[in-house]
Amino acid sequence: MKKKIIRTEEKRSKAKIDFFNKVYKVTKKIPFGKVSTYGDIAEACGIRSSARTVGWALNGCGPDIPAHRVVNRFGALTGKIHFGDPNLMEGLLRNEGIEFDEKGCVRLDKHLWKPKQK
Question: Quick one: pLDDT at residue 3?
Answer without folding.
Answer: 54
